[in-house]
Amino acid sequence: MTAHTKGSGLKWVGRAIRRLEDPALVTGQGRFTADLPAVHWVRIVRSPVAAGKIAKIGAPDGATVIAATDLKGVKKITPMLHKFNYKPVGQPVLADGVVRFVGEPVAAVVAASKEAAEDIAELVELTVDETAPEIDALAALRPDAAQIHTEAPGNVILEGKFKTPDFDAAWAGAHKFVSVEAGSHRQNATPMEARAGHAAYDASTGRVTLTCTTQMPHLMRTAIADVLGMPESDLRVVAPDVGGGFGQKMSLAAEYVVLVWLARKLKSSVAWTEDRRENLIAGFHARDQAITLEGAFDKDARLIALKTDIVANVGAYSCFPTTCGVEPLMAMAEMPGPYDFKHYETRARGVLTNTCTMAPYRGVSRPVITFTLERLMDKAAKAFGLDVVDIRRRNLIDKFPYTSAIGLVYDEATYKQTLEMAVKEIDLPAFRTRQKAARAKGRHLGIGFATFSERTGYGSPAFAARGMEITPGWETVILTVDPSGFVEARIGSSPHGQGLRTTLAQIIADEIGVTPDLIKVVHGDTDRAPYGWGTFASRSLVICGGATLIAAQKVRAKLIKIASHLLEAAPGDIVLENGEARVAGTDRSVSIAKMAREAYTQTHKFKGEIEPGITETGTYDPPGTFSNACHVAIVEVDIETGRTTVEKFLVAEDAGKIINPMIADGQVHGGIAQGIGNALLEEIVYDESGGILTANLADYMPPTAREIPPIELHHIETPSTESITKAKGLGEGGCIGAPAAVINAINDALSEYNVQIDEMPATPQRIRAALRTSPAVVPAKAGTQ
Amino acid sequence: MKPAAFVRHVPKTLDEALKILARVAPQDGRVLAGGQSLVPIMAFRLAKPAHLVDINEVEGLDKIAHDGKTLDIGARVRHAAFHKSVVDNPLGALLSEVARHVAHYPIRMRGTFCGSLAHADPASEWCLVAATLDATMVAKSMRGARAIAAKDFFAGIMATTLAEDELLAEVRLPLLARDARFGFNEFNRRAGDFAMSAALVTYTLQDGKIGGARVGVGGAEPCPRRIAEAEAALNGKAPSDAAFRAAAEAAAHAVEPLEDHQTTGEYRRDLVRAVVRRALEQSTQ
């Protein structure tokens, strides 16, 4: 066996060690779902129309084509909320007589190859008697709108309302009112790897192994077993290497249910890999929200009260497990953001339409609500004649713990400090000078700020507050030192790019005195990992990391006990480091490898005082902790074409204790890249009949490296009291703050034209259209590039 | 996203290629060069050719030659061939400038100049070059060879006057005057995307006045073309901001803009105005 390598004596936590998962990924050794061979290949026949009744599904002679009528006894996917007047609507695994969006799965073609399946799918004769669709959420609220589901009259699937007791009096007493109507067009998370599934039947046990691109393997197992009415123990779900998820891969894909059903039916292996077009039209969407926000300020520009009306277009069905409440309810609860005010009135509605089902996407609502709230703050600054920094200084929370107007408890954070840090590092006065000089030469530079709080690492009480029938939250970690002396952590989280194998190894290494490279983190296999909730909602490092620390502390205690027996020393005198247990101040030591071997093979030495083996379990279910940041964007707007170029992006961020600074920075960089894409480029466009006009990556535009500017990061570390590792989550912050900062900067660049850009993405077309309406500009004839 | 079944033919000589093309053309046979447009279209099943005549192993199609009057570009010359100047003439520099706007580096290593013309995407930079400089296309088939002027070559969005059995064997670009000036500008949302409008200009100065102006606009109409109104606004004038703006305005008015879900006609005219003026500005640098 390999000897334990000597550590440096430094703590592992806090160091930017290289990611343990990368050697395989960068040398082409990653193992992805679509790499698996299969006997049968599936092509999904999808609805070409947004609404209608299926008149005929005609299969070519000899072809295997599965439709809803074949799936006797298969239940609908019906997630549930026990609050907010939620109407449970079910999604048939394959459309059952009615189609409700373009791309909805209608039939599954089974053939011997991908190509053959696609050939047959083209020959399937699908006739749909079309009916008029509802595409836009506000239009779907009309009294005469088409009804998407009979269970949800008026197309409202849920409605949340909240009002603080003295709201009306506070509102009446305000000095000035500022309002904004803002919103986001629809976006797709666009993971590099689209969705794929592979189901294989094992004749000897009758079990099926579903390998798929999921962020939540255990919940997929529970959900599919429920829908198919099979014992959960007969299903194993494996998430191998997964090429990004961003929330899109936490919801149950109906296609996975079809695959498991087919594997059992055919007693064989069946695979499906969606193409980019399928992902863009049917792989879940997000962000489609219209928000009206009004702020009431006192004479000193302090926010007294906030009133908001949120309409979220949730698409045709409700995603499992979170339900479509995930966006409107997040918006309702977290709209108050980082600002200190007491009075809040809100209404949030989820509206069904004939569009692709919505699901969580990195940031979940907060990119949109942060954008809306930060637009309000900039408009308020203008109304009061204040600088945009000054109005935030007056309103940011600075006393902790802080209870928000809706009752969320914020732990200690650094809202004001990160703002001041960002202002200093960006050198605001110098920018204003440069901006003026550039303007004299016909160029339009702008700066935009966004301050926000990011709720992360929340456990089951926070989810239970939403009334979710499926209430995620806790995580369990099983930590074993095996007889070879190597360490294995089996976790219920399911990382897919976040670097969790590395960061958890760092946490364990510090507790038990071995180097991280000896620690294997096992995840993404329901046969190997304990039940858990997977990776989403900026939770894994906080919750799974906390469970890991608990398990590691128990292993540490056991190792010390073993060492005290073997070294005949008091437990208090044992130190664990550099792969060995040593009696402090002496040269007497025993390696962890030897202790591990003896814990299994020489148990008689412990005289029954120590249980055999070294396996400990940790479970953690925290209340949640708030990260915070201030984002600053500097942009240049070309007023002739409407193009925005982001020149520089700066972040002052506080995510508590940082376990691995390189991984933390990578998360922020990636989030900002997505946020800039959301701010400027990405938009799913439906035509009036419900067809998607942006079904490829030429028309749906994620940013390339060329569109992303240099990003400068600054950190403050405020250890969280609500997280036993002291770490806060930070997976979504980049994406949450960037759209607000970028679009505030655009508005700053165009301030002389008195136009308001309150939509995301702020495309060149929209910016030009706004400028054309401005009386202050004849932009076509002014300026240079 | 798998193409429908097809038969791939791999001729070694031009004669063999033309023979196969003549045979398979009536059965929806297509020429495959770099495949950077055709293959994605096949993957989307927007095209389902039954036969592909792959010219990647045909001898002699990768030549670039010039005789002092024209630059002759063979059917398999890749975009990347133009990264460096291919001829000691302002045309070499012009092609280098344009080449770096053609898609992304990996695509430029594979895609071909002539393939781009045969595909005739309205936004193609090379189609704009051909239209602006009045290139001559040499089409070959078993029936013989014929020369097609650029103005007679483009027939609409992704449509040309090539017959189905014809291979675009060569494109001839006229060399520019030794003292010719040129400028190019395009607008797209992301680096490497299709141009939403592009402009190429060339002219010479005689006694400080613009002469022989060519103003080509691509990406704005179904086919790239020279805009006579803009050229007229330049000829006889000294290069100046006012002259450039007048030409840009003339071009913006002259085009019949393509519209799509994100681009109104009004916006497309804005872009034409901007790219023409910027191309003209670049010509003075």
Structural notes for this entry:
The complex is a heterodimer of chains A (785) and B (285). Chain A has 785 residues and is an alpha+beta fold. Chain A has 3 domains: 22-30 and 474-620, Aldehyde oxidase/xanthine dehydrogenase, molybdopterin binding domain (Aldehyde Oxidoreductase, domain 4), CATH 3.30.365.10; 33-131 and 195-273, Aldehyde oxidase/xanthine dehydrogenase, a/b hammerhead (Aldehyde Oxidoreductase, domain 3, Alpha-Beta Complex), CATH 3.90.1170.50; 289-460 and 623-781, Aldehyde Oxidoreductase, domain 4, CATH 3.30.365. In chain A, 28% of the residues lie in helices and 24% in strands. In chain A, strands 3-5-1-12-9-10-11 form a 7-stranded mixed β-sheet. A 6-stranded mixed β-sheet of chain A has the order 7-15-14-13-8-29. A 4-stranded mixed β-sheet of chain A has the order 18-26-27-28, with helices on both faces. In chain A, a hairpin with a 2-residue loop joins strand 22 (574-577) and strand 23. In chain A, helix 9 (366-384) packs parallel to helix 18 and helix 15 (540-567) packs across helix 16 (592-601). The longest helix of chain A has 28 residues, at 540-567. Chain A is globular, with a radius of gyration of 28 Å. With 285 residues, chain B is α+β, with helices and mostly antiparallel strands. Chain B folds into 3 domains: 7-54, Uridine Diphospho-n-acetylenolpyruvylglucosamine Reductase, domain 2; 64-174, Uridine Diphospho-n-acetylenolpyruvylglucosamine Reductase, domain 3; 181-283, Enolase-like, domain 1, CATH 3.30.390. Chain B contains 10 helices and 14 strands. Chain B has helices at residues 14-24, 38-43, 90-99, 105-108, 113-119, 125-132, 150-153, 228-234, 241-254, 265-283, and strands at 7-9, 29-32, 51-54, 64-66, 70-74, 136-141, 144-149, 154-156, 159-160, 167-174, 181-187, 197-206, 209-218, 225-226. In chain B, the strands form 4 sheets. Chain B has a 5-stranded antiparallel β-sheet. A 4-stranded antiparallel β-sheet of chain B has the order 11-12-13-14, sandwiched between helices. Chain B has a 3-stranded parallel β-sheet with strand order 1-3-2, covered by helices on one side. In chain B, a hairpin with a 2-residue loop joins strand 8 (154-156) and strand 9 (159-160). In chain B, helix 8 (228-234) packs antiparallel against helix 9 and helix 9 packs antiparallel against helix 10. Chain B is globular. The mean pLDDT of chain B is 97. The chains are: A alpha+beta (785), B alpha+beta (285). The A-B interface holds A 114-115, 118-119, 122, 275-277, 638, 640-643, 681, 685, 687, 693, 696, 698, 701, 703-704, 706-707, 763-765, 768-769, 772, 780-781, 784-785 and B 1-5, 44-45, 187, 189-194, 245, 261-264, 266-267, 270-271, 273-274, 278, 281.
